[in-house]
Amino acid sequence: MAIDYTPDFRAVGIFTAQKDYRLCWLLDQYLRTAFQRLPDFSFVAENQKPPLAVPVFRHTDRRLLRKYFLLPNKLETTALFQKPANMDYLFLVQQPSDQFDMQRLIKEIRNIPQVNTAIEAGPFLGKAANSFYFEFEHYLVSCCQEE
C-alpha cells in the first residue's frame, strides 16, 4: 500500500568549505537569521547502517510563520544525498507559501563571500528525498513538540 506524501519543504544546496557553526554565523549575519542547534537527527541514508547522527540548525521566522533548517550533507564517510555532487549543506525552507521567492533566497545565500554557490536542490535529490523529508518531519514532531 503506497502512502501519498507531499513534503512541505523546499531545498537549497549550499556549496562551501565552511564548518556548520561558521556557516550558521554567516547566514545569521547576511540573512538576519538566528540559527540555533537542535538535537541530532538520526537518519539511515541509502545503503547506510548504522543510522547517521545529523546535526540540525533551525531559525524560526515568527512573522512569516516559516522555519529554516541547515543540515550538513557530508557526514563521516557518506552523504545524505549523492546529488547534486559535492553539495556541502542542505538548507530547507518549511512551509513556503506561494509567494515565497526561492530565487531571492538563493541569490542572498550566493552573496555570502564564503559560499561558493547555492542552487535549488529539490530537482536533484531524487526519490530518496521523500523518505528523508518524511523522517525529518517525524523528527521535528518528536524533538520540537513544545513549539
List keywords for this structure.
two-stranded antiparallel ribbon; 147 residues; alpha+beta; 6-stranded antiparallel β-sheet
Describe the structure.
- By secondary structure, this protein is an alpha+beta fold.
- It has one domain.
- The model has no long low-confidence stretch (mean pLDDT 87).
- The strands form two sheets. A six-stranded antiparallel beta sheet has the order 2-3-4-7-1-8, with helices on both faces. Strands 5-6 form a two-stranded antiparallel ribbon.
- Helix content is 25%, strand content 31%.
- The chain is globular, with a radius of gyration of 15 Å.
In short:
By secondary structure, the chain is α+β, with helices and mostly antiparallel strands. The protein has helices spanning 20-31, 102-110, 128-143; strands at residues 9-15, 36-43, 52-61, 66-72, 74-75, 78-79, 89-94, 117-120. The relative contact order is 0.26.
Count every beta strand, where a strand is a DSSP E run of 2 or more residues: 8
Helix content: 25-40%
Radius of gyration: 15 Å
Shape: globular
Helices and strands, in N-to-C order? EHEEEEEEHEH
What would the average pLDDT be, to the nearest integer? Answer: 87
Main structural class = alpha+beta
Count, helices: 3
Topology readout:
Blueprint lengths: L8 E7 L4 H12 L4 E8 L8 E10 L4 E7 L1 E2 L2 E2 L9 E6 L7 H9 L6 E4 L7 H16 L4
Antiparallel strand pairs: 1-7, 1-8, 2-3, 3-4, 4-7, 5-6
